[in-house]
């Protein structure tokens, strides 16, 4: 598929390719939809196999951000950025400041934040070149506690639907990924009395997390085969696919990772056919976006953000009810909610334009 075909497939407004060879910057910024407001989404740094994989990832991630903001009731559009590189060895002030200049060139159409492979430290470098960055120290900061808080309450909503009660005490939960979000999530789960297994592609990270706060480390590839109540993807996307879904031994999939389904419709159907309840990723993981949105509103209060993230519980219950009533997959119901809000706001713009420029008799 060509670049323009890919952009047209996902319905993007703008895609920017960023190159600064002197500092090793190869990045892509994707602006999906700005109907509700400026496009906000983190910048991810990862060792992609090639440029095509990076482009596909940023297009899917940015579209999910549009839907995430729409379902969460936020006045933001969807955007995302990816930097092609190894986050363990290739970070530098010059690289991130160069990226910041590209963000600045967009004049506020895209606002960046941290994501997989980046931290608040890199956001400080970016802020040296642009004001269009959130999640910097001294303001809303690290969004991972808020993401984890929302995922935790989302899990409880899923448990309510599947088991008839939302308690996670004595439930077995497999957490894939041992990053910042996973660490905060595991703390919530252990506090409630869940039995938690943790895996990561870097085994030492899972071992360290379990050593620090509890849980049982397991091999990365073993996560799909462990009998459990909830499987929770909290790392990279595409982990739920034709090969892994048949291996799952869980009743619920609920996690913070973006783009968990490799093939969105086909894999959602595979989960449904196996009787596994799936919490759409951009609905359950919206707590981090709520946090940075609150910073942009200028009245940042972390307690209010936590209250809003807790309400992901009710959002998912409504979504699952809608899916049952309309005979939809949860992913289809989530997309319908998002598209209905986007359509309503677009219609307001048309009405406003009509008032300013009335038709001639």
Q: What CATH architecture of the largest domain would you give?
A: 3-Layer(aba) Sandwich
Considering DSSP H and I runs of 4 or more, what fraction of the residues is helical? 40-55%
CATH fold-type name of the largest domain: Rossmann fold
Total number of helical segments?
A: 13
Largest sheet: 6 strands, mixed
The CATH top-level class label of the largest domain: Alpha Beta
> Which structural class do you get from the secondary structure elements?
alpha/beta
Report how far the terminal alpha carbons are from each other. Answer: 47 Å
What is the H/E string?
HEEEEHEHEHHEHEHEEEHEHHHHH
Quickly count the domains: 2
Net shape? globular
Low-confidence stretches: none
Mean pLDDT: 93
The fraction of residues in strands falls at: 5-15%
Protein described:
The chain is built from 13 helices and twelve strands. The chain is of the alpha/beta class and 361 residues long. The chain folds into two domains: 3-61 and 75-127, Leucine Dehydrogenase, chain A, domain 1 (Rossmann fold), CATH 3.40.50; 144-285 and 314-337, Rossmann fold. Strands 1, 2, 3, 4, 5 and 6 form a six-stranded mixed β-sheet that branches. A six-stranded parallel β-sheet has the order 9-8-7-10-11-12, sandwiched between helices. Strand 4, helix 2 (51-72) and strand 5 form a beta-alpha-beta unit. Helix 5 packs parallel to helix 11, helix 5 (144-163) packs across helix 12 (312-326) and helix 12 packs across helix 13. The longest helix is centred in the last third of the chain and has 27 residues, at 330-356. The radius of gyration is 20 Å and the shape is globular. The N and C termini lie far apart (47 Å). The relative contact order is 0.12. The model has no long low-confidence stretch (mean pLDDT 93).
